[in-house]
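The freezer alarm interrupted the setup, so I double-checked each line after restarting. Inputs confirmed:
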Amino acid sequence: MRVDRAHPLWLAYILHRLSGIGLALFLPLHFWVLSYALNDAARLDAFLTLTEMPLVKLAEFGLVFLLAVHFFGGLRLLALEWLPWSAPQKTWAAAAVAGSFLVSTTFLLQAI
Amino acid sequence: MSEFQLYMAQRLSALVMAPFVIVHIGVMIYAIQGGLTAAEILGRTQGSVFWLAFYVMFVIAVSIHATIGLRTILGEWVGLRGGLRDGLSAVIGLGLFLLGAQAVWAVTA
Amino acid sequence: MPERDHLTVTVQRGGPDTPQRPQTFEVPAYDNQTVLDVVSWIQQNTDPTLTYRFACRVGMCGSCAMMVNGVPRWTCRTHVSKVVKGGAIEVGPLRNLPVIKDLAADMDPFFDKWVAAEGMHHPTRTREDEIEAIDPVASDRQEANAGIECINCSVCYSACDTVAGNPDYLGPAALQRAWTLYNDAKDADRDAILDAVSGKGGCHSCHSMGSCTAYCPNELDPLSAIAGLKRATTKRFFGGRKG
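Predicted 3D structure, all chains:
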């Protein structure tokens, strides 16, 4: 039988799990490309020029998104499990962190 | 390791990584301004004790964290049990750590 | 709301000896009827071999839970009008448990895990002693009270995807039971409880997806109870003791 489970906490769980898998798959590639720098900086440069392509730019955005989603999802879990706060307190804390991150990142992007 | 010890290792490695991730995202936003080059990356990292320590701790923490997470998924979604699951997870963890250590060595040495 | 004379009810039939297959019945629709009424109507009027389980019919005994349109529910207090989709409902045995026959799930694994989670009383006194006075407003007591209305219906156990993926996982109901005992002033062995929920399949296997709390028919909060156990075990790890 089809199972109906799409409530907010379940969606947060599946997002955390899928972003974790995505990051774990990306990590070996990330390390491998960087280790080019050891003996062949020209090859690393050739690879890095790829990052100018729009499709690669989009993939980069995806990776940063995965990292940010997994980061905030993880902080949410740590707060849920370890802080003896009430549910509304946790919601406000999460909103405050996300809000301040948004403001400071926007500031950083403007500043540099 | 018991399930509880794995739980603690995963949560503590996450806590260790939290500030690293913020710095990492910050550096990314800063570094991609005007494009990425090997010279720029190496100019920042080569010979720097700070970045060496930063990335070594980051790689250790992420290897622990990802290994425990993947072990859970191998159990729940792939259906592996017992020694096969633990063995495969250990190989993944060791592989991640070695690749990561090689990358850190490459950009800081 | 437009009135319809009939509901189309698809029931999962079968068990360990016969392959599971859906069977569709047409059942008269009424303004007021529960999913259990519908199942009973089929058994009494169309197919007397349909197997299902119920007892109290008023949401106290916890025996009539089934999957209804993909969600585990107590069928005696689930009105058809709340769950019907396009004049149809789909009913099946509880998920994550073996099927005995048709809609009756085997609850043994569910109850075995209550025991495995140390969901048993560890007395502080003997029958010769005075009865211990309990402060009803103490924070421990409030925490325990939050979980004691569990009717053992297994809706949370059925709703949980961690149970589905990890057969060792004790599940929300058993862990919530452990948490109420951990907070009970009359329980003498809190370390035994924390040990029992720290092993293979214990509270640390939970991923906080919250389907237990979302679907508990008594509106209990096993998710927070399990988080309480994680907090207590973490505190013990760092040398902190509950006073």
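Quick read of the result. The interface with chain B takes residues 17, 20-21, 23-24, 27-28, 30-32, 34-38, 41-42, 44-45, 48, 51-52, 60, 64, 67-68, 71, 74-75, 78, 81-82, 105, 108-109, 112 of chain A (CB under 8 Å).
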